[in-house]
Design a protein that fits this description.
The chain has 421 residues and is an alpha/beta fold. The chain has 15 helices and 13 strands. The protein folds into two domains: 238 residues, 3-Layer(aba) Sandwich (Rossmann fold), CATH 3.40.50; 156 residues, Rossmann fold (3-Layer(aba) Sandwich). The protein starts with a helix and ends in a 9-residue tail after the last helix.
C-alpha cells in the first residue's frame, strides 16, 4: 500500500504541474460571489446529502447557490432540490444518457487524483478527474464548500485564485485514514476553512491544521421540520433508522432486543434502511427467532410520521459523524436511547434529561435501557417531553446564520502573499 500511495502522489503531482495551476491560497480573493457546493452524487440518499441540500436551501435565501454534483447514477433524486438552488452535473452516469466514445474510454480508467486509501476512490474515474478539474478551473470567485475528503483535496489543488475553499466534514476525525490525513496537511495551503460537526472534531482538526492558518469551526447539521404530529398515545414500537451497514450497529440492536422480546412480547423493533447488510441482518433475526417482532423495512422519506407514533428511538451506531437522526427523534417528542459512541450523541443528548446514553457497543446496557423505558411510562413521557426544546436549538435559521458568519470571516480574513508551494 505504501508503494501505491507514493506512486499516486508522484502521478498526481505530475498531473498538477502539467495543468499549470496558478497559485491559490495566498492570492487575494475576488469579490464575494455565489456559494457553491461540490458533492459526490446529489441524487443519492443519505444523511450527508440531505444535510448539504438543507444548508444550500438555507443559504439560498440570501445568496445565489449552486450545487456541483461530481456524478449522478439514479434517474431521479431521492431528495427534492431546495427552492432557489441550481445544480450542475459533471459526470452524468445515468443509463438513459448517451455518452461519447471518449467518455466511455476515460470512464474505464481509474482516477489519478485520489489517494489509493481514500474510501471514495472507486467512485472516481479519469473522466471524472477531467470534469471536476475543468469545472473548478472555471470558477470565478465566491465560496466553494466541499463535502468529503476526496473533494477537499481536489479543490485544494485546482480551485483558482479568488475562490474561498471551505471543507465541510461529515465524518468524525478518528475515521480518517492516515494517508488521507497526511495529504490534507500537505495541501492545507489550498483550504481556507474546515467545518466540522462536533466539538471533539473541532479540537482534533485545529490541532492538525490550525498552525497552517486554516480556520476550523463547528457547525452542526441543521434540522428540517418533519411531517407528523406527535401522538398522545404511542405505539409499542422501538424505532431505528439508517444505512444497513456495520457502522450503524443494527446487529448489536437486534441482539439487544432479545431480552425485550422475552419480557415484553407486545413490543416491536422496526428498522428503516437500505444497505449491504440486509441479508445478514435478516439471517440474524431468524436465527434469534425474532421474525414476529423485528421488522427490517426499506428506507423511507416519511420517517417523521413513524417517529411521531413510536414509543422510543434507539441509535446503536459504532460511530457517528454527528447523528442528526437523534435530533429528528427528539423533535417528535420521542425518547432516545443511544450508545455513547464517537462522536455526536453525547453532544446532543443530556443523559437522563432528554434521553439515555449507554456505553458504546455494550449490548447488555442497551437492553437494560430499553427495558427501563418500556417499564416506566412516566420516565418515557418525561424524556420525550424534553426533546422538542433540545431539537429547536438546531433549526435551519440558527445554523444558517452561523454558516453565514463563518463564510464572511473566511472571505475577509484570507491572507495575501506568496504561495509556499
Amino acid at each position: 500500500m505504501h508503494e501505491r500511495v507514493t506512486a499516486h502522489r508522484f502521478l498526481s503531482r505530475a498531473v498538477q504541474l502539467a495543468l499549470r495551476q496558478p497559485t491559490r491560497r495566498h492570492s487575494a480573493p475576488a469579490v464575494a460571489g455565489p456559494v457553491r457546493f461540490l458533492v459526490m452524487d446529489v441524487h443519492e440518499k443519505g444523511g450527508s446529502v440531505r444535510s448539504n441540500l438543507l444548508l444550500a436551501g438555507g443559504l439560498a435565501r440570501r445568496h445565489p447557490v449552486e450545487v456541483l454534483s461530481l456524478f449522478i447514477e439514479d434517474e431521479q433524486p431521492f431528495y427534492p432540490p431546495p427552492a432557489g438552488v441550481t445544480s450542475r452535473v459533471l459526470d452524468d452516469r445515468r443509463s438513459s444518457v448517451r455518452t461519447s466514445r471518449l467518455q466511455r474510454l476515460l470512464s474505464r480508467v481509474p482516477s489519478v487524483l485520489l489517494n489509493p486509501e481514500d474510501r471514495s476512490r472507486d467512485s472516481f474515474t479519469l473522466w471524472s478527474d477531467v470534469q471536476v478539474v475543468r469545472a473548478l478551473r472555471r470558477l470565478d470567485g465566491g465560496w466553494l464548500i466541499t463535502t468529503r475528503p476526496a473533494l477537499h483535496l481536489v479543490a485544494a489543488r485546482f480551485a483558482p485564485p479568488g475562490v474561498v475553499v471551505v471543507a465541510r466534514e461529515h465524518d468524525n476525525f478518528t475515521k480518517m485514514r492516515a494517508a488521507v490525513r497526511e495529504d490534507l496537511c500537505t495541501l492545507s495551503s489550498g483550504i481556507d476553512a474546515v467545518s466540522v460537526l462536533t466539538r471533539g472534531d473541532e479540537q482534533d482538526y485545529d490541532a492538525l491544521l490550525g498552525s497552517s492558518g486554516v480556520a476550523v469551526f463547528q457547525a452542526p447539521n441543521a434540522l428540517d421540520p418533519l411531517p407528523g404530529v406527535p401522538a398522545d398515545v404511542r405505539d409499542d414500537v422501538v424505532l431505528a433508522a439508517g444505512r444497513l451497514a456495520a457502522q450503524k450497529g443494527f446487529d448489536l440492536l437486534i441482539e439487544a432486543f432479545v431480552p425485550v422480546a422475552q419480557r415484553h412480547p407486545g413490543w416491536r423493533l422496526r428498522v428503516f434502511g437500505d444497505g449491504p447488510r440486509r441479508a445478514e441482518l435478516e439471517a440474524q433475526v431468524s436465527a434469534l427467532h425474532l421474525d414476529d417482532v423485528v421488522e427490517l423495512r426499506p428506507a423511507t422519506k416519511e420517517i417523521g410520521p413513524e417517529m411521531a407514533s413510536a414509543g422510543m428511538f434507539v441509535l446503536s451506531s459504532r460511530f457517528e459523524g454527528f447523528g442528526r437522526v437523534v435530533l429528528e427523534a427528539l423533535s417528535k417528542g420521542l425518547p432516545v436511547v443511544s450508545f455513547d459512541c464517537p462522536r455526536g450523541p453525547a453532544e446532543i443528548i443530556t443523559d437522563g434529561t432528554d434521553g439515555v446514553l449507554v456505553p458504546a457497543e455494550d449490548v447488555a446496557a442497551l437492553s437494560a435501557a430499553m427495558l427501563a423505558l418500556i417499564e416506566d411510562d412516566g420516565l418515557r413521557r418525561r424524556l420525550g417531553d424534553a426533546g422538542p426544546a433540545k431539537a429547536a436549538r438546531y433549526d435551519l435559521p440558527t445554523i444558517t446564520a452561523r454558516w453565514e458568519d463563518r463564510l464572511r470571516a473566511a472571505f475577509q480574513d484570507r491572507p495575501v502573499g506568496a504561495d509556499p508551494r
